[in-house]
Design a protein that fits this description.
This protein is of the alpha+beta class. The protein has helices at 2-48, 58-124, 129-135, 139-210, 214-262, 277-295, 313-322, 332-335, and strands at 340-342, 352-355, 361-367, 370-373, 382-385, 391-396. A hairpin with a 5-residue loop joins strand 2 (352-355) and strand 3 (361-367).
């Protein structure tokens, strides 16, 4: 028994020692596995992670913000166009609905008249011509009644023809009204889309600007001042050119006056002068345009606004020329088609100057290379050099 017990104890010790040995090695194996797993996981995450984009420079932000404002200006003109189209379609639909109501009333009148004829025919339909002659007070009365019925039949045919014509026209009007309603729905959808686009572009621009540090904002302001200074120098050069042109014109005027003074009476001479009644009429209108535009200085830019408390660019030009008795379209794209195209070197006060390749901005020329315009969101109506933005072209509206 003792030998057996000794044998069993020995096996037990061996087993325990073996288990202890396993436990001694296990932590090392587990740690190594976990470490490898962690390294693999981190490597996988690093490989799959999107690369961090470098922060844009102030110059890049400035260019991006300018582009967003320009895109917002384009979207604003689309909004103005869609709004104008929607208003036109609404007026068209309202007119069609009024016409449809009137035609329905005419149809009802024709229907009532036909009903009266049908009732009369029902009342007299059972009497034969022979019986009618027998029951008549005299043959003369019978013939008079017959002629009356013939005339009623003619009128009846006329009423039926009129009823059919009215019904056909009413059906045609319903078709037109349906199409106009569909067009109205599309224009309203375009209006909502343009509005959302403007808001999106402005929101993105504000977001970019809000992320700039104080130092970056100061640098951005310096870039803006440099840009304005360059535009101002170009405007001054333009002002010098105009001053020289005015001096030449004045000298020519005086020369012609002297020639006319020396011309014998009876000889009208050949000089025609430099001014024309057309130039004078335009100058009068332009003076009214500029007077109105100057009275709007300081009012805020609001996209889609056409006064009187705020404006977008084309809203201001439209309102200014309206003050001179000239009705301009609502959008820059339509305004550029009105009147006479003018070269930049030939600009006169009152002319409209358009900017960018997509013609998304417009201002009113006031002379000396300067204009009055509603610049962009966050800015007020102000005077600025026409060279601040790339010029597309110019127009003399009247």
């Amino acid at each position: 028994m003792s030998a057996l017990a000794s044998h069993r104890k020995s096996r037990a010790r061996t087993g325990i020692a073996g288990m202890a040995g396993l436990r001694t090695n296990t932590p090392a194996v587990g740690f190594t596995t976990a470490a490898l797993a962690s390294v693999t996981l981190l490597s996988t995450q690093s490989a799959n992670a999107a690369p961090v984009e470098p922060k844009p420079s102030v110059e890049e932000v400035q260019k991006k913000v300018d582009d967003l404002y320009r895109q917002a200006g384009t979207a604003t003109e689309k909004y103005n166009k869609a709004k104008e189209t929607s208003a036109e379609k609404r007026r068209e639909v309202d007119q069609l609905l009024d016409d449809a109501a009137q035609r329905t009333e005419k149809l009802n009148e024709s229907r009532r008249t036909l009903g009266n004829y049908a009732a009369a025919q029902y009342r007299t339909g059972a009497v034969t011509p022979t019986a009618a002659m027998l029951f008549a007070d005299s043959p003369q009365d019978y013939f008079e009644q017959t002629q009356l019925m013939d005339r009623m039949t003619d009128r009846q045919r006329g009423v039926i023809e009129d009823y059919e014509a009215q019904r056909a026209e009413a059906a045609k009007q319903r078709t037109v009204a349906t199409k106009s309603l569909e067009a109205l729905t599309l224009s309203q959808k375009a209006l909502r889309t343009s509005k959302q686009t403007v808001q999106s572009k402005l929101s993105e621009a504000r977001s970019l600007l809000s992320k700039l540090t104080a130092e970056e904002k100061a640098r951005l302001a310096a870039i803006e001042r440099q840009r304005e200074e360059e535009a101002r120098r170009k405007a001054e050069a333009k002002a010098e050119e105009e001053a020289e042109a005015r001096a030449r014109a004045e000298a020519e005027r005086k020369r012609l006056e002297q020639e006319r003074a020396q011309t014998p009476s009876g000889d009208t001479g050949t000089g025609t002068g430099t001014g024309t009644s057309g130039d004078s009429a335009y100058a009068t209108k332009a003076a009214k345009v500029l007077s109105f535009a100057r009275s709007q200085l300081g009012k805020p830019y609001v996209w889609g606004a056409a006064g009187p408390s705020s404006y977008d660019c084309s809203g201001l030009t439209q309102a200014a020329w309206k003050a001179a008795g000239v009705d301009l379209p609502r959008t820059t794209w339509d305004q550029v088609k009105v009147g006479e195209r003018i070269a930049t070197k030939d600009l006169l006060p009152g002319d409209l100057v358009f900017f960018y390749d997509d013609i998304s901005h417009v201002g009113i020329y006031i002379g000396d290379g300067m204009m009055i315009h509603a610049p962009k969101p966050g800015a007020n109506v102000r005077e600025e050099s026409i060279y601040y933005m790339p010029i597309y072209g110019s127009v003399r509206p009247a």
